[in-house]
Amino acid sequence: MNPLRTVGDASATDEVRGARVVLGDGGRGPFKLLPQSRRKRSAKRDRHARTRVAFFRYSYYDIAFKFFVEHVLDADFVALPKPTRRTIELGSRHSSDMVCAPFKHILGDYIEALELGADVLVQFAGPCRLGYYGELQESILRDLGYEFEMLNFATVTGKPLTEYISICKKKVNPNVSVPHGVRNMLAVFKMIECLDEVNDLYLANAGFEAEPGSFERAREAYFADMREATCERDIAEAQRRGLDALRALPTRKPARPVRVGIVGEYFTAADPASNLDLERKLLALGVELHRSLTMTNRNLRYNERNLRASIADYVAYDMGPTSSLTIASALRYAQEGFDGVVHVKSSGCTPEVDCVPVLQRIGRDTGMPLLYLSYDSQTSDTGLDTRLEAFYDMLAMKKEHAKK
Q1: Are 133 and 9 in contact (CB under 8 A)?
Q2: Are 262 and 329 spatial neighbours (Cβ–Cβ below 8 Å)?
Q3: What pLDDT digit, counting tens, does each position of 218-244 carry?
Q4: What InterPro entries does its record include (predicted)?
Q5: How confident is the model over 173-198, as pLDDT tens digits?
Q6: Which member of 97, 145, 235, 315 has the lowest number of beta carbons within 10 Å of its beta carbon?
């Protein structure tokens, strides 16, 4: 395959699985397919052969996705390397300009997964309009000439468990053991809770490490250990070792550190590749960091009724998939005396755009500063660094002034 060329170059062409793509088609669309070159179609794979399954990249949750594929679906997991600039360029090249950045990130992930030989792509994104994106992404990839199955859980959301089992058997493995799969699915949930617990500990303390890089190395060692888990006992043991290793690391944490909370959109707020390593940049400034937007809090322990009750003074209606958690978390951070909150979203994310006026009111009522970050596929590190440094300086001066 030829190397990708710069997006927007009208003369650039790219071959993607036999489909010739011409960019800059007079403004009539993100790409144009020319007649495919003649090629021999590969023989259809044995439906009962072991399948290669890939997820999109999403923070450190690839560890749980791997366990799900190998021990629930009984298939082979296609591990993706760390994303590069090429990943987002791929996704942007074949996406409409109107879709949000997560769509482009995920589409780029899928193309790279198919290049690595994936047979099945998994999509579960939602509950916002991302829940509709799986079908559109499948259509784009098929137009590009790729052959694969799409295991799109958005099509069975809210349906009985039998529907989930049926689609897994149809798309991945007709011989899936239901008792074995259900037992290991519970282990997946436990693993997600463990991953979030360790990351919470990391965020709260890594900004004050006595030895540079020690917390990152310990967390990466923990992730590697968890990737080798094959059962719930392995998960529990890896968790114990990981927590012990992080807690044993020396820190130089002041009595009253600058504390910052992160709130925002489900994908961008949690995924380092999407938010340009926001957490690592903040930790490098020396803050105690908290992020309530995790799969544990949004998927496994989510209680919309309780969240809505906690923000009744600010919200009277359901504003969208992550809105209640965003607003409730920001309000809780203010009530607990946090020094500031960073609101993170992809450009054009309607639910989180609607949250902004409410967050501004919370900021006025409590005096807590808020920083609003909106990401698209062109957001640069330089601009982000400048804004974060200025925000931190303001918080630190405000905290120092409060002592006097």
Answers
A1: no
A2: no
A3: 999 999 999 999 999 999 999 999 999
A4: Dehydratase_Activator_Redct
A5: 999 999 999 999 999 999 999 999 99
A6: 97
In a domain? residue 20:
no
d(CA 70, CA 180): 12
Phi first, then psi, for residue 258 (nearest 5°) are -70, 125
Predicted confidence (pLDDT) at residue 259 exceeds the cutoff of 80? yes
172 and 183 share one domain: no
Domain around 98? 42-176
The closest alpha carbon to 190, from 224, 238, 222, belongs to 238
Report how many domains make up the chain.
3
264 and 244, same domain (yes or no):
no
18 part of a folded domain: no
pLDDT mean over 349-377: 95
Q: Answer yes or no: do 316 and 393 share one domain.
A: yes
Structure tokens at 345: 């979203």
303: how many CB neighbours lie within 10 A of its CB? 10
Q: Classify 83 as helix, strand or coil.
A: coil
- Whether the Cβ atoms of residue 134 and residue 150 lie closer than 8 Å to each other: yes
Residue 338's CB is within 10 A of a number of other CB atoms, namely: 20
